[in-house]
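Troubleshooting: if your tokenizer reports a length mismatch, compare your output against this known-good record of 213 residues.
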Amino acid sequence: MSGRERILGRVRRALADVPPDDTPYEQVVRRDYLREHGDRTVGQTVELLAENLADYRAVVHRCTEGELPSLIARLLTEREAGSVLVPPGLETGWLAGTRVTRVADRAESTPDDLDRVDSVVTACAVAIAETGTLVLDGGPDQGRRRISLVPDHHICVVRVPEQVVSSVPQALERLDPGRPLTWISGPSATSDIELDRVEGVHGPRTLEVVLVG
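Known-good structure output:
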């Protein structure tokens, strides 16, 4: 008897006492989940996002559209970044205020190539206030998934309030499941059994989020 036959036999035995007219599974499981928790204004939703991002140890900045280039330039300068990875569709004006060497998002780049880049600047697809999560979907202004996972410093620009939603269900409605989705809640971190936190284990050690509105 093969492993497949053994498993299917166990499934048949487990279902032996289920009546033929039993309610189908998709009707048994209730899916009337709450779409969001609480009743917030748009401004309160943005404030909740900023609070939860900071709680995850992301560094949150706020600026207007006109202030964005100078803010990004200052963040790269403070980081002493010599190079910055740039997705192909990133708005060119965002980096107008910096002289840092720009590195293109190329398919042939190796992990070592990406690891030598100091910083990366991306946009995002959507930001979730209740969980403090940024979601990137590989769009032109976000680039390949790996560019936000290898460099040690990630600057992510979020347009508020249009890219901010309250909850995960609301975010899922905006996202295409066929795209390469990257969900980011704070800088990369892990902890051992004694809860000693270590950052930068499998992604950027520093995450800076710019809320532009």
